[in-house]
Amino acid sequence: MHEPIFEQWWLARLGDHLIWSRLRLRDSGTAEVFDSSGTTLSYDSEDSARAALLDAEFRALDGLDEDDAAALGLPLEDLVPPSGEDAELPPRMSITLPSRH
């Protein structure tokens, strides 16, 4: 298996949940997306992986500003990707957001 050369976290709001996904690029030129169900989806290129994430209404964390974060329901400084081994990540990849009053 090829080692990742780049890793990027993506997130989407689904109802009152914030859902994380992780994009990894491999030195072979392929890409994979690890989703909140613990599934790793393989793609033939970075572009196809990014297109799939965008189609699912995910946004790259490193491209968000304060207004984007507020629209997702949390301050930018609170948008911290989950950490841990892949087997530990799925329960940490879906966060219930505080209710808006």
Counted by DSSP, the helix tally is 2
Indicate the proportion of strand residues: 25-35%
Report the principal-axis shape.
Answer: globular
What is the share of helical residues? 10-25%
Low-confidence stretches: none
Total beta strands:
6
Helix-strand sequence = EEEEHEHE
Largest sheet: 6 strands, antiparallel
Arithmetic mean of pLDDT: 92
How far apart, in Å, are the first and last alpha carbons?
48 Å
Offer a concise description of the structure:
The chain has helices at 46-55, 66-72; strands spanning 4-14, 17-26, 31-34, 40-43, 59-60, 94-96. It is an alpha+beta fold and 101 residues long.
Please provide a written account of the structure:
- The protein contains two helices and six strands.
- It has 101 residues and is of the alpha+beta class.
- It has one domain.
- Strands 1, 2, 3, 4, 5 and 6 form a six-stranded antiparallel beta sheet that branches.
- Strand 3 (31-34) and strand 4 (40-43) form a beta hairpin.
- The longest helix is centred in the middle third of the chain and has 10 residues, at 46-55.
- The radius of gyration is 14 Å and the shape is globular.
- The model has no long low-confidence stretch (mean pLDDT 92).
